[in-house]
Task: structure prediction
Amino acid sequence: MSNKFKENLRKGIFSYTSEISPERGSDFSKMKAVYDVLKDTVTAFNITDNQGANMKMSSLAGSVYIKMLGGEPVFQQTCRDRNRMALESDLLGAAAFGVKNILALTGDHISFGDHKHAKPVYDIDSVNLIEIIKGMNSGIDMNGKALNGATDFLIGAAVNPESVPLEPQLLKFEKKIRLGCDFFQTQAVFSIEKFIKFYDYYKNFPAVKIIGGIYILKSAKTARFMNKNIPGIYIPDEIILELENSSNPLEKGVEIALRIARGIMPMVHGIHIMAYGIEDAVPSFIRGFEKKN
Amino acid sequence: MIVTKQKELEGIINKIKGTVFIFGCGVCSDTARTGGPKEVLAFKDILEKRNITVNGTYVIDAMCHLQKVRKAIRDNKESVASSQTVIALSCGSGVQSAVMALDSSKKVISGVDTMFLGTIENLSSLKEMCSLCGSCVLNETGGICPVTLCPKGLLNGPCGGMKNYRCEVDENLECAWVRIYERAVSQDGMEDILRISGPRNYSVKKPAATVKFSGSHK
Result:
C-alpha cells in the first residue's frame, strides 16, 4: 500500500497537512464533512488524540475511518492516556488497518481538559515512543520480541520552534532525530525571525523533513485566548493588534497566515494548517499560497 | 518529612463512634501543623464542642514507628481502652501503625490526608522534591528531579508546552527541564542530559514492599 505523504516528502513535493478532530460521540459525520472540504488540497490528515486533554472518539478509530474514505491519516498518539502496552497494541491495530503515519506526542496535561480528575499516565515519553515505533518497523516490540507482522510507519514528532528558551527544546528535538524520527510538525509559527533561528539548527540534519505549523486566526479574541490557554503558543502583540484593527478579522487572519507561510516556505518541506472551526478557509488559503509562489 | 493536610471536618466527625482518643505525631505532623501538640488540643476542643467525649490525647514521637505506638498505647492504657474510636492525626503509615497496635475492636480514623514527601524549606514552607519512585535519576539530571518537578515526569527534555521558562501546568512553576538544562550548561554536564533515557522500570516498586535486615544495626 502506498503512502502519498511519505512519497511527497521523499520526492521533495511540498506537502500540506491539516487536522481532523474526532467527535465526542460515535458519529463520523462531522469528520466526514471536514474531510470533504479538505480532501482535494491536503496531502495528509492529522487525527487528533483527545486534543487538549478533552475526551473524544479514539484517534485510532478516526484514522482508520479517514483511511476508509481514501485519505492519508497521520495517527496522533499521545503518552498521556495510555501506558506503553496500550500504545504498542494500538500501533499494531493501526498498522493492521493500513495506517502508515504516526505523530508521537507527549500530550497536553490532563489539567487542561474535561477529565481533570483522571490519572495522567505518561508511562513513557514521546522520545521512547519513537524508539518503540522504530523497533516495530523492524519487526520487534519494545522488549525485543518478534512481531507476527512488522509495521511500516513513517514516524513523526512535534517540536516548538518558538519555545523560550529554545535550547532545551532542541535537546529533545535532537534525541528524536537520533532515534530515527522521519518528520516533524511544528507548533504554530507566529514569528519568522524565531523560525530562522530554529532553521539554523535543523539545517544540520538534512534527512529530516520539517512541516511548519500555520495557524489561521479568526479574531483577536481567539489569539488572546490561545496565548493564555494553549500550551507553548506565542502570538505577538503586533499580530493581535492587526486582527483587532481589521474590519474583517478572518480575512486578516488568512492574510497573516499566508505571510507567515510564505516567510517560512524556503525552510520547510510542507506546512501543517490548523484552522479549528474554519476549515472552509483552508482550500482557498492553500490556493492563495500556491498562486503567489 | 511526610506532609499531611487535615481532612474535611464533617467527614471525620461522621465516622466517629462513641468516645474518642486522639493520637498525634510529633515529627512530621507537628511540622506540617496537622498533628503536633497544638493541633491535637485544638482538635479535642472541636470535638468537645460537638459533644463528643475525648478521653485523652497523646503526641507520639514518630507515629510511623510501630514500637513507639505500642508504647504510647501502653502508657495511656485506660483512656485508650475506654475509647471506642482512636483518631490518628498522622500520615497513612502512622494510622496503620495504630491499626496494627490496637486490638481489632477499636475503630481507627485518619484525620488527615497524606500528601507528599516534603523538603522543609523553612518552617513555613514545605516543598515536594522527591516522589519516592524507587529508581533515582538525580545523578543524570544534575540533582534536579524531573520525575517530581515535571508534572509529566519527563526524562528526555521539556514538553512543547513550556513557555517563557514556565511549566504549562502551573505558571508559578519553573520548567524542571529548563533548570536541568541550565545547570548542565553551567556544570559542563551536557553529556548526561544528551543521553537518551529509556522507559522507567516500574517493577522496582513492589506492592506493599518490606525491607528486612539481619544482624544488629548498632
User: Anything to note?
Assistant: Strands of chain B lie at 2-6, 20-25, 54-60, 85-89, 107-110, 112-122, 125-130.
